[in-house]
Design brief:
- The chain has one domain: Alpha/Beta hydrolase fold, catalytic domain (Rossmann fold, 3-Layer(aba) Sandwich), CATH 3.40.50.
- α5 links the parallel β11 and β12.
- The chain has an eleven-stranded mixed beta sheet, sandwiched between helices. It has a two-stranded antiparallel sheet with strand order 1-2.
- By secondary structure, the protein is of the alpha/beta class.
- Helices cover 25% and strands 25% of the residues.
Length: 360
């Protein structure tokens, strides 16, 4: 899938055309407040048992934001809890967020809130991982060191990673898309008419990146063709072979951190694996390496102590601004056909050690 964009710049003005049914030329800056609610969806496991998929949902609203404490292990943010969605300016694109191993749908409100303010509905389910270090709803009882040991074993698995054992993750994503679209189609639902079924994106951190890549065709086993754009954040790219990426045909962005490069991150070859992913995906594609970032930079709070590092909170704030800007631009460009966002994607931020953008 290739995209052709024509951008004419006069001074500081960007002149954009119109594409049928798309919000071309919409602002790349936030236009809404972020609403937040929690939905419970029933899913049948392969063994026939029922499982509740608790899903955090952020969305555009006009109601006032207040400080939030998300989750069983509180993560701070700001949103209007259980506010009415702003359906007057919809329908909105849907973005699915997939968390890392043992994490939760509320692991990155700095990003999910931002996307809602831009005009996206964001749904982030709690995955049914064997270890659960956090949950949208209490409790989240886990021995943190046992959890980290399990995560480390998974990270060392390389291409021997058991995809079928983790297939519950992409299946959950498809279920959440089904359920959110069904709510948007129900006349009695608060979400009636809120979501555009033709504009769906996905992003995921760590094992959530494996989930994202699976859903957009890597390996082709769990592909959900409704997803039109993807972002791999500090990704589970070691789980795939070079040829697996050749079946990915949606615009994709890869990002990872300087302190995950091979010399700083002995767990796996993040540099080589990300390079392989980048080279074997077709355009449009974007990659950046973020200065001073660890694996945990891309979530919220800090687990840098696992790496024996202290967190530089001023740097973390600047890093999060960059992540928000480029993720937002990716979805603005390829879900909203907003050509103004292309300027962001092709610009190298001062915090980038490396940046590549092939959009044609």
């Amino acid at each position: 899938m290739r995209y052709r964009a024509e951008i004419v710049v006069l001074g500081f003005a960007v002149i954009v055309g119109l594409a049928a049914g798309q919000a071309v030329g919409a602002s790349v800056e936030p236009r809404f407040n972020a609403g937040f609610t929690v939905c419970d969806f029933e899913q049948t496991r392969p063994d026939g048992t029922l499982h509740t998929v608790t899903t955090a949902v952020w969305y555009p609203t006009s109601e006032r934001e207040l400080r939030m404490r998300y989750g069983a292990r509180p993560v701070l943010g700001k949103a209007a809890q259980d506010a009415a969605p702003d359906t007057a300016h919809g329908p909105y694109p849907l973005v699915i967020y997939s968390h890392g191993y043992g994490g939760s749908g509320i692991c990155a409100p700095y990003l999910t809130e931002h996307l809602a303010r831009l005009g996206f509905v964001v749904a982030a389910p709690d995955h049914d991982d064997a270890y659960k270090a956090n949950r949208i709803r209490p409790p989240a009882e886990v021995d943190i060191r046992e959890y980290l040991a399990a995560a480390l074993r998974l990270a060392h698995s390389g291409t021997n990673f058991d995809r079928e054992a983790h297939a519950y993750r992409p299946r959950t994503i498809s279920l959440v898309i089904d359920k959110m679209l069904a709510l948007s189609n129900e006349r009695d639902s608060r979400w009636y008419g809120a979501i555009d079924a033709e504009r769906i994106g996905m992003c995921g951190h760590s094992l959530g990146s494996f989930t994202t890549l699976a859903c957009v065709g890597a390996g082709a086993d769990y592909r959900d063709e409704r997803i039109k754009a993807a972002v791999s954040i500090s990704g589970g790219v070691f789980m795939w072979r070079a040829q697996d990426y050749q079946t990915v045909d949606v615009p994709i962005m890869f990002m990872y951190g300087e302190l995950e490069t091979t010399e700083n991150w002995p767990v796996n070859d993040k540099t080589g694996d990300t390079e392989r992913a980048w080279e074997n995906c077709r355009p449009p594609k974007v990659l950046f390496l973020l200065k001073g970032a660890t694996h945990f930079t891309f979530a919220q709070g800090s687990m840098d102590w696992v790496l024996g590092r202290e967190t530089d909170w001023d740097l973390r704030s600047r890093q999060h601004q960059v992540i928000k800007s480029y993720c937002g631009a990716m979805f603005q460009r390829y879900l909203n056909n907003n050509l103004e966002a292309e300027q962001i994607l092709t610009t190298k931020d001062p915090l980038f050690i490396e940046h590549r953008a092939e959009l044609q």
